[in-house]
């Protein structure tokens, strides 16, 4: 049990590190607050909340993995390396795909309620 709590602590510290160091993650957190307040205002259904939460989760998970990849690349390849650059580009691409999906999900749910 103590090991489980310790692992949980390490995972939370990884999230806190990302939130403190990554500007994009801070932007995502602000967007989540705005989406949450708007969702409450327009009275989303349970299914709509579930879709929004899945979309938000997708972006946050992608951002956390992207940050981990960036740190790992900087560790193993501190100098300029074309392949290291590609690895970072692909990880950033994953965040872009996740963000794009969440924008589409948000548009499908919010636009009919706000017009
Ligand atoms: N070691 C490297 N070798 C070659 N190209 C690199 C290297 N590091 C970064 N790059 C290129 O620069 C881009 C930006 O890298 P960087 O590490 O600054 O990511 P970032 O998304 O700006 O990071 P942050 O989220 O910390 O601002 C990468 O996507 C890649 O194209």
TrEMBL record:
GO molecular function: ATP binding; kinase activity; metal ion binding
Annotated binding of substrate, by residue: 3, 63
Residues at which a divalent metal cation binds: 70
Active site: 63
A Gene Ontology biological process term: phospholipid biosynthetic process
Comment on bound cofactor: Mn(2+), Zn(2+), Cd(2+) and Co(2+) support activity to lesser extents.
Binding site for ATP: 3, 10, 70, 88-89
Any coiled-coil regions, as ranges: none
Transmembrane segments: 25-43, 49-69, 90-111
Database matches in CDD domains: UDPK_IM_like
Annotated family: Belongs to the bacterial diacylglycerol kinase family.
Protein name listed in UniProt: Undecaprenol kinase/diacylglycerol kinase (ATP)
Species this protein is from: Pedobacter westerhofensis
């Amino acid at each position: 049990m103590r090991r489980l709590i310790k692992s949980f602590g390490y995972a939370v510290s990884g999230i806190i590190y990302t939130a403190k160091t990554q500007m994009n993650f801070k932007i995502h957190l602000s967007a989540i607050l705005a989406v949450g307040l708007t969702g409450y205002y327009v009275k989303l259904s349970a299914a709509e909340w579930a879709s929004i939460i899945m979309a938000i989760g997708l972006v946050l998970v992608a951002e956390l993995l992207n940050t981990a990849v960036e740190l790992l690349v900087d560790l193993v390849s501190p100098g300029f390396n074309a392949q290291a650059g590609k690895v970072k580009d692909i990880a950033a691409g994953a965040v872009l795909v996740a963000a794009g999906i969440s924008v589409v999900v948000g548009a499908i749910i919010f636009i009919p309620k706000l017009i």
